[in-house]
Protein 1
Amino acid sequence: ILSELSIENKKLYKAVYCKIWIKKKKKYNLLSTILLQHDVVFIFFLIHKGNLENEKYTFTKAKCSLLGLKKVDIINENNELFEKLAETCLMTTYAFYIDSKIDNERKIFTTILENLFLKNFYESTKEIEHFEGDLSKFLELENGTKLTLSEKIHKMCEMYSQFIFLKLNKEINIVKSLYQMCKIMYYMDAIEDYEKDKRRSKENILNNISEDKAELIYFVREKIIEAISKIEIDDNRINKNILELSLQSRFNTIKTKRLK
C-alpha cells in the first residue's frame, strides 16, 4: 500500500506503525508486537482526517523490530492515543481468537494465540474477561436463524465500531467510518470462506444469496464499494491508498481464487 504514496506520507505511515509497535512492546511485551495489525494505523489516519502533507509532524529515532538492530523514525504525537491504539490492536486480535475458537478453526494458530494471551496478556488487559463474554454472545448469534443478513452485519458492526470508539476516546466521533470498515472486513471474510463453509454446512452471511459464483462476487463487490463510499477520509491520501489499492488487491485475489 506504500508504493503510491509520496515520500512524506510513506515516512509518516511507517512512523505511526512503529509508534504503535513501541507502545505495544512497552505496555505488554516484545511478543505482543507480532500481533500488530495495520488496521489500527488506518484508524489513526481516520482520526487525523485531512491532507496530511499539509500538517506538521515531528519525529524521533527509536528501535522498531523484533531484532532491534536499527533505529527508525517514529512520530511525536499524542502518547495517550497511541497507547489506546496498542490496546485496541490487542483486543481485536483477541476477537479473532474467540471467533476461531467458536468456529473450531485454525486450531494450531488458535492454540498459539491462547497460550500467548493466557501467559502474557491476560493480566495486563483488564477488559478481556468482559469483552470475551460480550463477543462470545454475539458470535453465537451468527448461527441463529432468526436474524436476517442485514441484521447480522448490523449487530456485528455496531458492536465493533462502538467498542473501538469508546476504547479510543469518547470525543472522537469516527463511529460511522468504523462501522463501514467492519462491513468491508465482514464481506471480504464471508466471500473468502464461502466454499469452505458450504462444504462444512456452516453458517455464512452469503448463504442463500446465489448459487452462481460470478453473481456472488458481484454482490460482495457492490457491498464493498457502497461501504467504501461512506467512509469519511476527506483528502487523506494514505487512507485513500488503503481503500483504493490494498482492498482492491485483496478482493481481486479472492475473486480469482473463487472463480476458478
Protein 2
Amino acid sequence: EYLIVSDPNNSNQTGSAVLYRRTNNTWTGIENFGSPSASANQFYGVDFCMSTGAENVVITEPGRGNGYFYVYKLNTATGVRELVQSVTTANAPTTIGGVSVSYDGSFARYAAMTRDGVYLAIVATYSRGGARSGILMYKRNADGTYTFDHLAMEFSLNNSYHLGFDMKFSGDGLKLFAARPETAATNAGAVHIATLVNGVYGGVQTVQEAGNLPQFTDTDRGFAGIVANQTTVPTSQREEFYRKFCGNTIAVNTDGSVLF
C-alpha cells in the first residue's frame, strides 16, 4: 500500500511531496518529489494522484506560470519513479470541440487518476467562447506519458468556483465524481458525476442542495452544533454549511457508491 503526503508551502511555497509505503503496518517514506524549477510561490504538491502500486504518479504545481502537472513512472529496474513528462499550457489542447482555447487562468490545479492509471483528470480554467472551468481528460500512452483525449465537463467560470476541489474515480473507473463547493447560482455546492461510455466521460449528473439534499430553514435546529450552536442561522452561514456538506470532500466505494 502507498500514500503520498505533500507540503505545497514547504520552503517558501516551493513545495514538496513524499511517497510512503506500508510494510507490516508501518509507513516508511521511500521517495521524495520536488519541483523541477524549485522556485518560491509555485506550490508544488497542491494536488496529486497515483495508480495502484504507485506505478504512475501525477503531481500538480499551479503556481508555476499558468500551471504545470508532472508525470512520474515507475522504473521497474531501479524501483524509482522517474519524471517522464511535464505538462503546461504550452502543450495543452488548443482547440476543444472545434473551438479555440486560450489558457488565461489556472491550469492543472487539481488532478485525479483511475486505479489502473489509464485515465487522468485535470482541472483547468480557460477561455473557450467565454470564461470556462472544465475537467480535461488525458489518456496514458505506452511510454507512461499522457495525451489529452476529451473534455469531461465544463461550466461558465462565474458559476464554477473551485470545480474539482476534490475528485475521485469509482473503483472500476467508470464514474468520475467532481466536487464544486460553491456555485454562483445556488451558493450551495454541488457534486458532478460523469460516466465512462465508449471511452468518453460524459452524461454529467449534478447533485446539489436544490431537490437532491435535505432542505433546511434558518430556524432549523439541525444546525445547532454546526454553526456555533445558534438557534437561527443567517443565510451566509447556511450556505457555508452546504459548501461543507455537499461538494468539499468525496469518498467513493469500490462499487461506485459515494459520500460527499
